[in-house]
Amino acid sequence: MENDEETSFPNPFQLAQIDEAMKRRTELKKKTDPAMIAVSSNPILEEKMRQLEQKENELREKEKVLLLREKESSSSSSNRYDGMERNENKNWPPFCPLIHISFDDIPESNRACFKFAFAFMNTHIIALIFNWVCELVAISLQCIIMSTIYLVVGTYVVWKIQFSSATSTLRQEKISDHKILWLIFNLSCSIGFSCFMALGMFCGVGLFSAISANTFTTTVLFSCSFCLWTLTVIIGFITLRQSLSLWRNSGGTVEKAKAQVASVAAHEALSQANGSWAHRNQN
Q1: How confident is residue 198, by pLDDT bands cut at 50, 70 and 90?
Q2: What is the DSSP letter of 93?
Q3: What is the DSSP letter of 99?
């Protein structure tokens, strides 16, 4: 969103010229105005006039400083907004950008958790791809179909739901309870799924698949798949632990999370009720 009109600020050089002109005008007035001549002849009045002029000059200097600060603040906020717009550009993966990744957007206290969440996303997707390749080698039609579904749906869920949830949550300095709990829930579901796949259940290529493999090639492939799923589980547990630690450090409790969820639900229900009521009134 761009501003239609940019705020204009006085030029400091122009302010200096105005001050100089006002000083000349005051000097001329002192020489020509009878009232000013009378004041200059009275030492007490002249001292008071000097004090007033000094205060007036101080006020002008303060005004200059305030205008300069306002101008600098406006330009810095504009640059920060432009930077946010540029940072929202999709940049990952490099060969086909689908999402936005920027560690600069994450506070320093949350950056370690974000790095593990990023690693968890990548290992999860690599494990899904490798699982699909192993099923093609095994030539099992049912498991090929299932692994294809896992690959398509799992990649979308990991990128668009889980990692976006992690990004929006960890961008906050003070993480809200309901957001961190939603992140923990997503991580727990992914870790549980990865555990089943690491064991070789539900058409996952894992430990049981490697044990029951008939050839050396399939044994090596299935063992690599098991290692990938195991690595995914380990990184997932580390990310989950980091998320729980952040939640506890921010003073989060289950009671607070329930209260926030109830508040959000009540707000949504009220908004929907107001919308339906307004729609009925229009009809």
Answers
A1: very high
A2: S
A3: B
Residue the block writes with tokens 């799992």: 154
What residue type is assigned to position 220 of the chain?
V
163 within 8 A of 118, measured Cβ to Cβ: yes
pLDDT band at 227 (very low <50, low <70, confident <90, very high): very high
Residues 6+ apart with CB under 8 A from 219: 210, 213
Whether the bond between 12 and the residue before it is cis, its omega within 30 degrees of 0, is no
One-letter amino acid of 207: L
| Selection from 124, 74, 89 nearest residue 225 by Cα | 124
Residue labelled with tokens 């607070």: 256
DSSP 29-78: HHHH-HHHHHHHHSHHHHHHHHHHHHHHHHHHHHHHHHHHHHHHHHHHHH
Note the pLDDT of residue 2.
Answer: 42
180 within 8 A of 115, measured Cβ to Cβ: no
With bands split at pLDDT 50, 70 and 90, how would you rate the model's confidence at 281? low
Mean pLDDT rounded to a whole number for the chain: 79
**Three-class SS of residue 173?**
coil
Which residues, in sequence order, are CB contacts of 198 under 8 Å at separation 6+? Answer: 204, 206, 207, 226, 229, 230, 232, 233
Helix (H) or strand (E) holding 274: helix 254-282
Cα–Cα–Cα angle for 68, 73, 78, rounded to 5 degrees: 130
Contact 243, 113 (CB under 8 A): yes
What's the pLDDT tens digit per position in 31-81? 566 655 555 666 676 677 777 778 888 887 887 777 777 766 665 544 444
